[in-house]
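Protein: Sugar/nucleoside kinase (Ribokinase family)
Species: Allostreptomyces psammosilenae
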Amino acid sequence: MDEYDVLVVGGTGVDTIVRVDTLPLPFQDSIGVPPIQDYVAHTGNGVALGMLTLGLRTKFIDFLGDDPQGEQILAAYARRGLDFSHLPAPAGTPRAVNLVDAEGRRLSLYDGRHPADLLMPRDFYLPFLQRARHVHLSIINHTRALWDDIERLGVSTSTDLHDWDGRNPYHLQWALRADVVFLSASALRGGADGDRHEEAMRAILTEGRARVVVATAGAEGCFVLTREELEERDGAVRHFPAVPPAPDRPVVDSNGAGDAFVCGFLTSFLAGRPVPECVLAGSVSGAFACGSAGTHTEFIDPDQLAEGCRRAADTLASPAN
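Structure follows.
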């Protein structure tokens, strides 16, 4: 029996959150802001803690710096009971500065400090990989070392391409080798070339091995295309509307919403649920994350997710919607 339901590889760090009135910022010498705070964050962190909170046996592995940020991360994982193993990061723990406006929108400045030639050693990751049912790979360069062993072992995989523009070759190894691919539609819609999210989604399925591709679009919901739909419905992409926020959780911060969507979707997907149910779970989880300030400060639990899905399904099914 597999020891881990999910092995998350790569993507821990610290976010510094700066709250501002509007984005973009005006050009001036100084701007007064509310207290600036640091949070244990980044994409792998959000997926690992989110899946753990939803009851999955979760293992997280990464590089980590011997610095105050690394100490903050280790202390947080010890408090939450996350099973985390790491190697020393030669350039220290990754950081980001996120500017968040009054409507919860953000601009993330990510330092990407890991050296370009850094790869995760096989003797470190392989024992964990051999005990995993599913692997979620962050698009951190050092995770690309795992792909050949993942395919040899036949382990299912997922990844999040974030704001991929559909062209940057860096993302292709993850886009074309994962079974479940998530991405944001933000860089693929409304540009000089028009909306290209459907084109990118079809290309991922046509050229790669994915079973399903999900492009999230914030308040507009998400777009979904499966391999079966590509083959049987001539590649018709389905649109799913966003779920309304819970009455007691208005939107205050979108940091971590994409990672939360991934957690809700994958938890249902790995349980064998139909894609529309997976989308609903992802949407409810993402909306829940938007109701808390900071990055990855709250994670939806199984009871909250079940109740949120019931409420959202009733709301979306009402004649007013």
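Remarks: The two ends are 44 Å apart (CA to CA).
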